[in-house]
DNA sequence: ACGTCAATACTTGTATACAAGAAAGAATAC
DNA sequence: GTATTCTTTCTTGTATACAAGTATTGACGT
């Protein structure tokens, strides 16, 4: 979990399997509720059950699959409680980051934010979806840096990834880009102005967009949500 | 060995091993840097290497041990970065909880807080260390309930446990109890008064105590800290 | 046609055996 | 005595075999 993004040199079979399954689950190629078998995956990768078993363990600890004794392992459904928790953590951290950023933003930091946003404008006008996603990450990372809490970005990214899989169900992302850029501009202005509460409020507004999206998906894709608690 | 009198739940070997090792690590019976071998643990539990291997995997995902290919697995040292991150998350979440609690605290909630604190006074005067720890958890859980974000407590408890192992190095905890109760009282007052910022500030003060403790331990027990980054 | 029951297939949990590499210790050369 | 090199041992990674339980499916009786 800690090294989800870093490129490992010596990748074992387990690493490869985890990477592949993680990607499949994240991109909803493996839908929630899908049953996956150790034997099947082992055959697909041409290895024994053992590495697959280890991989399953890792994924289970990431709460991406659920493996019960003597029952078929399956891709975990979305837990409303888990999503709420994750959203709350991200909102709390991000708001704290924005408060700190507003307090500590230097002139140079302000220019940094401006350049981030102009890049976003560029990506938006070009319809560069993937590029925009990357820039979105970088914007939030920049804010963490400005707040002098770079480690906070790890948390934000982690929580973001936890619910990212949901957003794969969303059809059009492009029509939301202008809204997001507007939000970013509001955040940047508040931070540059040194107004912590305004920055936190702008951040809250920004995050609430995702809440709406999730609420909508929850209705359209109810089958992928877990009715019981965890 | 199979069932020592009490009705055992369906705990697998892996569960038992994880539970035991987790407890040993948390209570610093297994010190950071200690090398542990799959074979050894397997022999101790009278099982094969396989369940131990699974247990190691789970613990590695919890960032409690580090297992590298062909190198001895060892109990992970304290990572300054990880501690900072964890502290930041807990502080962010707890402050957000307190803000919400202050906004949403009813009269009945206020009485709840009062009863929590009087129980803490009782445990303190009796020198009931374990009881106080439990009450401390319950106090923070109550605040989450008052804030109408009960799931936030999961996060707080999780982050708390991540650094709890550090506090095992601390000799006397009793002399800190009066300070903690004072903090709790300040928090409760601000929440009952419906003052979000005062509540958040009181919470920040409360958490800063732990930061001081950690800073002290970092010096006295430098050997247990990891110098490199992760 | 439908309900009940049993056998079968498929699931994960565990044990054992072998492979590959790293670290530590012993032996040797200087 | 010291440094270096080689061997030995210990480590985890992987493959295979067996065990135990569940779910499905088929057959059979009503």
From TrEMBL, chains A, B:
<protein>
    <submittedName>
        <fullName>Putative HTH-type transcriptional regulator YdfH</fullName>
    </submittedName>
</protein>
<dbReference type="InterPro" id="IPR036388">
    <property type="entry name" value="WH-like_DNA-bd_sf"/>
</dbReference>
<dbReference type="Pfam" id="PF07729">
    <property type="entry name" value="FCD"/>
</dbReference>
<dbReference type="InterPro" id="IPR036390">
    <property type="entry name" value="WH_DNA-bd_sf"/>
</dbReference>
<dbReference type="GO" id="GO:0003700">
    <property type="term" value="F:DNA-binding transcription factor activity"/>
</dbReference>
<dbReference type="InterPro" id="IPR000524">
    <property type="entry name" value="Tscrpt_reg_HTH_GntR"/>
</dbReference>
<dbReference type="GO" id="GO:0003677">
    <property type="term" value="F:DNA binding"/>
</dbReference>
<keyword id="KW-0805">Transcription regulation</keyword>
<dbReference type="InterPro" id="IPR008920">
    <property type="entry name" value="TF_FadR/GntR_C"/>
</dbReference>
<dbReference type="InterPro" id="IPR011711">
    <property type="entry name" value="GntR_C"/>
</dbReference>
<keyword id="KW-0804">Transcription</keyword>
<keyword id="KW-0238">DNA-binding</keyword>
<feature type="domain" description="HTH gntR-type">
    <location>
        <begin position="11"/>
        <end position="78"/>
    </location>
</feature>
<dbReference type="Pfam" id="PF00392">
    <property type="entry name" value="GntR"/>
</dbReference>
